[in-house]
């Protein structure tokens, strides 16, 4: 099976089998991308984590040429691998809601406002949906890897911003 950047359409595929194969992504075909958020390690090793893309490029940068993903038509879907002690810094998606759905381990999520943070720990099959414009963060306080789904409600989300209270404030991708 070969997934291309511009998948076949239902109408243009030579066969229903060919079309069906073009819209399936397997675990074996996924790739842990430790580099896409590598720039965040400038603020500390605790920000090292891997993105595993399925649909679209996510909001972590320009991955539109990743031929292992299905092109987004309205949302992005990826997995995030968060090692023990690792964290996702406080950030805000201004254009789309973001959902985290835990598959393995535990993830502590934080919701931020006016210098306050409310934290909750999510475990297996727990989920949080954070509206656009609301700052959020996450951390793996456990001793095993945490794996969770990340869904962003936009075809090509804007790159998130990092407020002054975030460890990433002022950190650039270059």
UniProtKB/TrEMBL annotation:
What the entry lists under SMART domains is as follows: Cupin_1
Segments passing through the bilayer: none
Q: Where is the Cupin type-1 domain?
A: 57-167
Which protein, by its recorded name, is this? Cupin
Pfam family of the protein (one): Cupin_2
Gene3D superfamilies, alphabetized: Jelly Rolls
What's the source species for this entry? Nocardioides luteus
Q: Which InterPro entries match?
A: Cupin_1, Cupin_2, Flavonoid_dioxygenase-like, RmlC-like_jellyroll, RmlC_Cupin_sf
Question: What SUPFAM superfamilies is this protein classified in?
Answer: RmlC-like cupins (SSF51182)
